[in-house]
Design goal:
There is one protein chain. The chain has 14 helices and 13 strands. With 497 residues, it is an alpha+beta fold. The strands form 2 sheets. The chain has an 8-stranded mixed sheet. The longest helix is centred in the last third of the chain and has 51 residues.
Length: 497
Amino acid sequence: MADRNGFSGKVKVASTIVDYLSSGLYESPAACMKELVNNSFDADASRVDIHVKPDADRIIVSDDGTGMTRKEFQEHFDHVSESHKRDSGDRTKKGRPKVGRIGIGFIAANELCEQMEIVSTKRGSTDLLRVVVDFKKMRDPLKQRRDREGNVTKGDYRGTVDKVGRNEHYTRIYLNEVRENVQDVMVGAAPEANTAGEDSLYGLAPDSIAVELARPGLRAWTDLNLYSQTMLKVGLNVPVRYAPDWIPSPLRRRLKQLEHDVDELKFVVRWDGTDVRKPVVLGHDPDKTPHVLRHFKFDGENVSAKGYFFAQHGVIEPQELNGLLIRIRNAAVGEFDSSFLGFRASEYQILKRWVSGEIWASSELEEALNIDRRTLREAHPAFVELQAAVHSELRSFFREARKRLYEEPSRVRKTERAAAQSSKIREIADRHQLEVSPPPSEPSSDEPAEARVSSRALSRKYSASELYEVALEVAEEELPRGLFRKFAKALAKRIAG
């Protein structure tokens, strides 16, 4: 007999939630721009051109991708968050892993501007789509935007279909009526920044940008203007190539396959004519050598991954490169994580600031992505497994780095100091016509322990009182009592000087 008090139902997601998420999801103009660029990547574009200058009152993003039909536009925009990108598979015709999957990327434009115009045509079609999306509607109170079915309007659009040549294919997005605060960021117009000179990357070639990013003293990207910071943040996230000589040649040869895999995506982004590259530039400060590099490879039950760890003798700068960056389907998950996925070994706190690394994770980790695409769900099995593998490798890597970057150089410095002191003792003895044999500065391992201890003593620093005590101990053993007292007084007077 059925329980008369029982009941059942369905838990549903209100359209209001999607409205909130799509309105405040992106923390910066760079986060919004990278969504538009990743859309071009998913459209198999080879090249994306972004035009911001001179004053960013209108931003243009154009690509040579597959284009869009009226039907495809309406599928994407009539119901935000219902993505159809992967209906035909999770790879593009070129074989690229598709980045987008939720269906709210295009709506990122509403945080940049009041109106978005889309002009697009597909290869093999004579239709030219023109659509204007007005986001002003979404500034109205929520109550005014909700219809009888509970759907929430994000904006109004109107479009036409014209005719164009059959072989053309492209998409051009015009962000019109760009918000004033966004304009300030996009052109670097904040009072403390300008658009040219040492603090700007505007108009520089990739090799010149790499030189600027490798410049000793550039502590953080925030030392550059907002225009440059935005370009760097987009470059870090999207699937563009590495900069020329991004890492010293001997290490670069060891990362040849990784760099080749990125190059094979054949994806170029130009920002006001500048070829945007990954702003990862490591190991070029001559005062922070030597370096340690290790490959990372993991194949688990829930996720697989590959990448590298890099360490240098000194703090990683710019500081935005310190930590671990996760990439899924070639797009970054947020920024470099200086906690290294929560690695807590207290004995390596200083070394952690000396390390940078990148991990390319398999698509299984995508299920752990939060909707902001900047963080991962820490309880997801794929994340838990990857975190454990990374931490295990990090413990070994930090031990190696500490040995090669600190212990071995420290031992060399001590040996050099001991050799210098040994030479100085001989020089002083010769000046006084004495025959002495100071201990060797580099005793071999088969020499008696006394010789090794004496050699270490040569490299240590003595205080005046310690030196006085040692001299008196020797004098007391070797001199008659009267001479000893006379020597002790004279030595004390000389030291007190």
